[in-house]
Design brief:
Beta-galactosidase, Chain A, domain 5, TIM Barrel, 3 domains, 10-stranded antiparallel β-sheet, 8-stranded antiparallel β-sheet, 15 helices, 37 strands
Length: about 700
Amino acid sequence: MRFLCLLALWVMGAAGPALAQDTAQQTDVAQPAGTQPVATAASPDGKLALAITINGEGRVGYAVSREGKPVIGESHLGFLFSDSRQMLRGMELQSAAKSSKDESWQQPWGEWRTVRDNHNELVTTFQERDKLRRTMRVRFRLFDNAVAFRYEVPQQPNLARANIVEELTQFRVVEPGDAWWAPALESNREEYLYNHTPIDGIALAQTPLTMRTRSGLHLSIHEAALLDYSGMNVARVHEGLLEAALTPSSSGPKVVRDTPFETPWRVILIAPDAPALYHANTVFLNLNEPNKLGDVSWVKPRKYVGIWWGMHLDTQTWNSGPKHGATTAYAKRMIDFAARHGFSGLLVEGWNKGWDGDWFATGDDFSFTEAYPDFDIAEVSRYGRRKGVRLIGHHETAANIVNYERQLEPGLDLYRRLGVDTIKTGYVSDAGGVQALDPNGRRVFEWHEGQVMSRHHLKVVEEAAERRIAINPHEPIKDTGLRRTYPNWVSREGQRGMEYNAWGEPKNPPHYDTELVFTRMLSGPMDFTPGILSLTGRGNTPIPSTLARQLAYYVTIYSPIQMAADLPENYEANPGPFQFIKDVAVDWDDTRMLAGSVGDYAVVARKERGRPTWFLGAITDEEARTMTLPLSFLERGRRYRAEIYRDGDDADFRTNPRSIVIERRVVRSTDSMPVRLAAGGGLAVRFVPLGR
């Protein structure tokens, strides 16, 4: 076909844009009859092909195929404005330019030490044919496992300011299949169980939105580099046609930007299976700018404990009173426990004034510099530093950023003086309940992922970086890879974590975690707060997990800061399983997804940063599974002591969750490991090198 011939010429090095000259139909990229590509591009390995089209109405479109089979049918692009005609029809191609890049860079911390950025780029410029003559560029990047694009709107007389009501971006998924998605713009922010439906059953979904087509191809739609813009959700229009749906704003337009500006990248991961989909998540990092902070050696991956779980159990409180958790005496006992077992951080929630009364309603009373009388923050910090345990700060805002931004600098300055190098922030409120000031100084209500919060989160991260403090937001804006540009943005929540197993109804079922790995975890680290060895929540209610599964979370659900979230007495009562939590690393040289299926199971191996030790974690859904895992990821010719924490033969999350076997054996890279995962169970292994 004409398109494939043009693509072949481009791959062989033909210069300049490939312009279509005939009227042959291009069915290999799912274009409607009569529509011709005006430019084409391919991924570095040639498997993904992109065609840019302009139809009879002058609507710009794109289509994607993989190995000659349509994946994304012709999907249109454009904007809807509140004060001007939409930018959608009557467009013509002005220019198309191509370039390539293949380089590697190193993360200061992460799942991989080295990340390769290998892509081909096509930059297309379009202009309206009418008297407005407005111009937009669309920059496409093709990786071997993804297609990404963003709009770039130059400064121009007839578009000095863009008041964007909606981004008219489409994703036409050609083949039917399954989808895993969490609902968007609902009251509980991002914290919903995933819906598993046909692709045609998607309603209004958060991203990442993951799909598996009938032929087994895996897709995920998300965004990268969300800066000064509204977060993108995805809505189904009909059949396989999905459209961007930007998060609303109190001002009317969802985005207000002066030209010139760039949108976030719209990203479609395309992989042959679930493990390959997980490995594709480096695309989001590669679409962000390099580190802007310079030396970030002060950002320290760590494991920590906290005055936290007791509040969720209702045995302690955030507010003052007889059950107040954040007291000087209890914090010192927690520091002693942390130091004794090798944890370098203590999170203390509820230390500051403002938790009494209905703080959830307004957040106006929170102070970020004044402690309750029974908590001496300076003394606790001094005591912890003497024992090698840093206080981890906490700023709960109740999503009242009016109050928080007024106190942001003095609050950060206090922590800097005390030697606090990490802060957990919080934005607990109903979705749409963020309190902010509009340009006229009036208090308005915004969404957690709107443009206002995009600006706010970056402000917090930048102010913290000036003081060498890392930020871990809960109830956050979504992760879009900005940790590359701002490496002090170390983790975040952004989905249902372990606290839902304390009091949630329903609790997180086992299949939720195996969905999480291939949805939310594609976007970046999650502060999931694992390690509940009691296996009980509030009122002694059972947590749907085996003991081995709680250990496996430390490997399967990545974060550079990992909490040992249970109470100290529960760790002291379970010294065997607790040993793995003490031993497991949090920073990695390499990561391998050994096996997995969305919503069914996931098996991950990771090599410790700067050391030859490997760790393996596996989790399954409500179904017990057996498999044999090759250990070929281990160094050839070297023996390892495998320290294995596995489900007992009679383990089951419903009937016998505490059954665990801890054993050791010597293995090599040429060996295979038989694995049995109990229903709702898991596996955790530490591979310690023994020599040749």
